[in-house]
Each structure stands twice: as structure tokens, then as C-alpha cells.
Design goal:
The complex is a heterodimer of chains A (175) and B (68). Chain A has helices at residues 4-13, 28-43, 59-64, 91-103, 114-133, 138-152, 157-174; strands spanning 18-23, 49-54, 72-77, 80-86. With 175 residues, chain A is an alpha+beta fold. In chain A, helix 5 packs antiparallel against helix 6. Chain B has one domain. Helices cover 63% and strands 0% of the residues of chain B. The chains are: A alpha+beta (175), B mainly alpha (68).
């Protein structure tokens, strides 16, 4: 699938709803998202197909589709793109894309809203600033750091890679 | 989110109040009994403001967020 003609031809023949993952081997966020994508792929097995397009091997496709960042995940239904997201996505957003491919409707954004994110980031930054001005006060600095992280955790590739493993550990311990 | 029972203005007021109280307590601006009080009580408005949920509102069957 190195050319856009090949991509479009294959897309035309595609019967089922489709999600396309544009990735590259050197891309760390792509690698971080891969286990989550595989999990969601298994959930939708038999209803939504998944293609993986290596950006390094298909620069023409990337240019033609105007994809300027990876990982980019796009949902297609009846040969038409219905939704697209760039960045390492959490499970909820990936599920939203799979649902978009199934229904043809734009996915609802899950997770933190923009206002929620801004509130947490501003509060965290203020605490860090006050903590630094106060001597520093390690309690305020640590609290500010935790609150800042709570505003971006769903975008953090490291967290996405670690969180399912930690959850599994807790599940294992509780059984 | 349906559990959110605080309006945006309410949440901002709580977060600002929490930050001010924590700063007064942990930076040593206020010392003694009040300082210790602010050190811990400051967490309450900060956390309830960040989460958007006030348990006291639930007990009093009150909410400032009318959209939920």
C-alpha cells in the first residue's frame, strides 16, 4: 500500500467498517498505543477491520491524506473517512473511533473536557508557583505536580503503557 | 458528568480558596493553630473544586450546577 492509488483501491474493496492506524517503527507513542489498539481490535473482531500503514513505507499516502503527525488513527465507513485523531489515544477514544466506523457518526469525545483540563492545569501551575515562592514548600510543589499530571494523564504515552499493567497487578492481587 | 453538582463559578471559587488556604498554611504565612488548620482544611475546597462534587450539597439536596 505504498501509493494512494493502492490505498484507495483497497479501501473501495473493503466491505466491513475500518480503522486505519498510521504508525512508524521509531515512533514511541505509536508503540505505547499498540497494546491498547490490539485490545480494542479484539473487542471489535469480526465487525471492524484494522489496517496498519507504516508511514515510512507510504509517504505518498500520508501526504495525500494530509497526515502530518503519527500515530494517527482514522475511521472509515463505506470507503469514506468519518473520524480521525492524532496522538497516542486512550482506550475510550479508540473505542469511540471504532464506534464511529460502525455507525458512521462522529465519535463523542470521552475523558477530560477542555475546561476540566484547563482548571486542573491552572490550579496545578498556581500551586507549583506558590510552592516555589514559599521557600520552596515541597508539599505545595508535589500537590501541584500531581494536579498538573491529573490534567494530562490521558495524553501521557508512558501512563497509557503502565496503567493497564498496574491494573492487572491489582486484579491479580485481589483474586 | 452526572455526579458534578457544582457550577463552573463554584468550582473556580473553591479551587482559588483552596490554593490560598494551602499557601497560607504551608508557606508559613499564618502560623500556630490557624496555620495548622489552613494546612489541612485547604485540601477540602481544592479537591471538591477539582472534582466538581460536593458531598455536603448532596446531603442538603442542593446544587449550583443546574444542568446536571
Amino acid at each position: 500500500m505504498a501509493t494512494i492509488e493502492e490505498f484507495n483501491l483497497k479501501l473501495k474493496d473493503q466491505q466491513r467498517p475500518l480503522v486505519v492506524d498510521f504508525w512508524a517503527p521509531w515512533c514511541m507513542p505509536c508503540r505505547a498505543m499498540e497494546p491498547t489498539l490490539k485490545r480494542v481490535e479484539q473487542q471489535y473482531e469480526g465487525t471492524v477491520d484494522v489496517w496498519r500503514v507504516n508511514a515510512d513505507e507510504a509517504p505518498e499516502v500520508m501526504k495525500a491524506l494530509k497526515i502530518y503527525g503519527i500515530p494517527t488513527t482514522a475511521a472509515y465507513r463505506d470507503g469514506q473517512e468519518v473520524a480521525r485523531r492524532t496522538g497516542a489515544l486512550p482506550q475510550a477514544e479508540l473505542e469511540g473511533l471504532f464506534e464511529a466506523a460502525l455507525t458512521g457518526e462522529k465519535p463523542l469525545r470521552k475523558g477530560l473536557s477542555a475546561n476540566e483540563r484547563i482548571l486542573r492545569l491552572v490550579a496545578g501551575l498556581l500551586l507549583v508557583a506558590f510552592g516555589w515562592a514559599a521557600g520552596p514548600s515541597w508539599v505545595l510543589l508535589a500537590l501541584g505536580g500531581v494536579i498538573i499530571f491529573s490534567g494530562v494523564y490521558d495524553r501521557c504515552p508512558l501512563w497509557q503503557a503502565v496503567a493497564p499493567r498496574v491494573a492487572k497487578l491489582f486484579q491479580g492481587a485481589s483474586q | 458528568m452526572s455526579f458534578v453538582n457544582e457550577a463552573s463559578w463554584d468550582r473556580i471559587v473553591r479551587v482559588v480558596l483552596g490554593i490560598v488556604l494551602l499557601y497560607l498554611g504551608w508557606a508559613g504565612v499564618v502560623t500556630g493553630g490557624w496555620g495548622t488548620f489552613f494546612k489541612f482544611v485547604g485540601f477540602v475546597p481544592l479537591l471538591t473544586g477539582l472534582v466538581g462534587f460536593c458531598p455536603l450539597y448532596t446531603l442538603l439536596k442542593f446544587r449550583t450546577n443546574k444542568t446536571g
